[in-house]
């Protein structure tokens, strides 16, 4: 029995004389083939093949989820091909732009940032490979997918040398181009995550735990946590201040995790850890040949953090020439890679941190006044550990538990005498000093002898222990001022609250 006769497809001719079927631009519900790889593209020339494009099976599965936030630029002189690619990509991508020639494409790159460029090779005026090579030389970092119907081995080699990430032969179906775009996005995401993770490991070796949460229930900690909750959802830049070791990066990560950028990159940068002659290239990126040793172009940390949060720690250590460049980025939200002729737009949330008094640095001429006023929109000061009450005991217990697992050492009990010593000590190194004390304790198997309450053999702490010296000194000053705690605090350079807390512990 013969089935129903299939309708013959309507054929049309494109600008280059190639024939394509109108039905090929209509959605279908079956058929999936993967895009041609670079190797197969080179090995299978397509000279004489019709440059058609077919809209295959609707590809809305999880394998194309990376496209949801992608910005795509289509460069092709054929209206039919541009229309097909727009119809394929627009429902799945955040932004899809099109350009009819390379001049129009260059203008769009000057004003927008794209994750992937889909580029036809054979176009009037200038072919895609030559244009791509030119753009790489002036600061174009996005992946490019070359599409062509007339490919050979030489074209494939030229495309690779020009920096094409993939090579797709016409005719192709919709899921072939979707797969190619998804591969580009996944590869770039993995590259950026790898670089940011390696940078974070180099720059923050002592930030092993507590990186995402502010621990503690003291009044000072609760005030900081409440402020963070209020500002996290806003685009406002934040300046975190406080002494070293108070948890400024922890606060920055908390702000990021509570914001609408939580699923985007969080990129921490320690400005003091980067050599002054390299900091511009690290932050802004560079093109190939921009300086000695720049054998290839690379995006900087500003672009790696695109869409997410950039945390600039120790901002007071930023060299003066870089301060003016940072001010320009804050005002224009555009970065110019080293050696590039083009500025690239970026979408960033900025969080800054410093343990210096920036106002005093401005008065000394070490920090730009205009940058300080631009940073100091919303300032959050992190409290000292000694002003956080019983938070020190909670932090000590967490460090003991986590570090004992990491070091493979049995935890050391924190008895009543140790708890008293932990609560009475001033912690000039703040949380970082506490962590180091717990790690040293685990290595020794007991709290060090120079820490009060550390003896595990029943003996009392030595008379010259740090805590005992501190106790004698504070009580001596109190005696000199006839018990005036306000005056004693002024002479000692500590808060009245600290004097009251220590006197309570000593039953004075």
UniProtKB/TrEMBL annotation:
One of its GO terms (molecular function) is ATP binding. GO terms for biological process: phosphorelay signal transduction system; regulation of DNA-templated transcription. It comes from the Bacteria. The modification 4-aspartylphosphate is found at residue 120. Residues 214-443 form the Sigma-54 factor interaction domain. CDD domains: AAA, REC. Keywords: Activator, ATP-binding, DNA-binding, Nucleotide-binding, Phosphoprotein, Transcription, Transcription regulation, Two-component regulatory system. The keyword Nucleotide-binding applies. The keyword Nucleotide-binding applies. SMART domains: AAA, REC. Residues 71-185 form the Response regulatory domain. InterPro entries: AAA+_ATPase, AAA_lid_NorR, CheY-like_superfamily, Homeodomain-like_sf, HTH_Fis, P-loop_NTPase, Sig_transdc_resp-reg_receiver, Sigma_54_int. This is DNA-binding NtrC family response regulator. It comes from Bradyrhizobium daqingense.
